[in-house]
Amino acid sequence: MAEVVRMPKLSDTMTEGVVAAWHKKVGDKVKSGELLADIETDKATMEFESFQNGVLLYIGVEKGKGAPVDSILAILGNEGEDISALLAEEANKGVSAKEEVKVEMKEKVAEEKHVAKLETVQTPQNTSPNQSVTASNDGRQKISPLAKKLAEDKGISINNVKGSGDNGRIIKRDIDNFKSNGNSMASFVGVESYTEETVSQMRKTIARRLAESKFTAPHFYLTMEIEMDEIMKAREAINTVAEVKISFNDLVIKAVAASLRKNPKVNSSWLGDKIRYNNHIHIGVAVAVEDGLLVPVVRFADGKTLSQISTEVRTFVAKAKDKKLQPSDWEGNTFTISNLGMFGIEEFTAIINPPDACILAIGGIKPSPIVKNGQIVAGNIMKVTLSCDHRVVDGATGATFLQTLKHNLENPVLMLGANSI
């Protein structure tokens, strides 16, 4: 008996999937566990295996096209089986759903019209939007709409054009016959053009999640300057003995993890009717990819060495750019870091990544004059900005976390033990 294969929900935030490739064509036999198609979700392209045996009788979503979760992806059944009744049944379901949407839209439009009617202000009706103005009492130049458009396109100042129409009105032939005498302010005439791209599943999800975060979580921001001279020296020394090259971002992750252990209220999330304080520390690391932003998670970051963190982050970056991250790679964050320092950005604010209560924006390290022992000396400063959900984290709580982070980065010898590399 024919069975409908529906568009799977391959991530917690997925509402629509795009078929990146079909591995079977209509008429092919399909075994349970056999690869059927590649589905592009909001975060990655994932392989989709069949859960039943049968012949592929129908493809509901062509390659490159998208469809909502639970819509018909394909139909599997016996060879030669009639699936017209099954398709009709599914079509009726779709019609019913559309009718419900239409009713809702009609009600909404009726309500909007009612409100608009109440707010309408009567305006004079004695002029027509298409009527040309042929006279002016305020000294403005009289010109036909067509002539005005031609003058703008050619970069001709109408103040330098003599009109030959009624009452000196400038008309089309005046613009056509106009010759610059050196007094007109002719400007460059460009050509308007643009390109449009279909919004990717990833970009749709980024837009939805960040809009929800920004408009529902009351953000506030705390910025602090951190002296980086000691951590720069420490990094140089570490890289002489470390198995892999350690970046400043790796050191920041380690310092943040240590700071969260001392400030557990920052390692939390808002759940509506309760606040969750996480005992484990899973740090999401924002990674820029072609279609947007992914946030793979370094789990139990406080218990890992710098080499382990560095290797893990490098692997995540490579997988993200190849669209090979899996849900287990990006789920479960308790705190997030976004670092734009490598792009020359000195300071910025980031939008909280749900369900976290905070996100830390990292700027670049900049040579700056600093005061030490009453003397102005050359130093290196990094600015960090903590975005906080005020429903969970108060100003003093966020400030205490930043003080701990500052202390850890400015005194790396106290943060990094013998087994930290």
If you had to describe this structure to a student in words, what would you say it looks like?
The protein is an alpha+beta fold. The protein folds into three domains: 3-81, Beta Barrel (OB fold (Dihydrolipoamide Acetyltransferase, E2P)); 140-193, E3-binding domain (Dihydrolipoamide Transferase, Irregular), CATH 4.10.320.10; 201-415, Chloramphenicol Acetyltransferase. It is 31% helix and 24% strand. The protein is built from ten helices and 18 strands. A six-stranded mixed β-sheet has the order 9-18-17-16-12-15. Strands 1-8-6-3 form a four-stranded antiparallel β-sheet, with no helix packed on it. A four-stranded antiparallel β-sheet has the order 5-4-2-7, with no helix packed on it. A hairpin with a 2-residue loop joins β13 and β14 (292-294). α6 (248-262) crosses α9. It is flat and about 80 Å long. The two termini are 60 Å apart. The model is unreliable at 118-135 (pLDDT under 50).
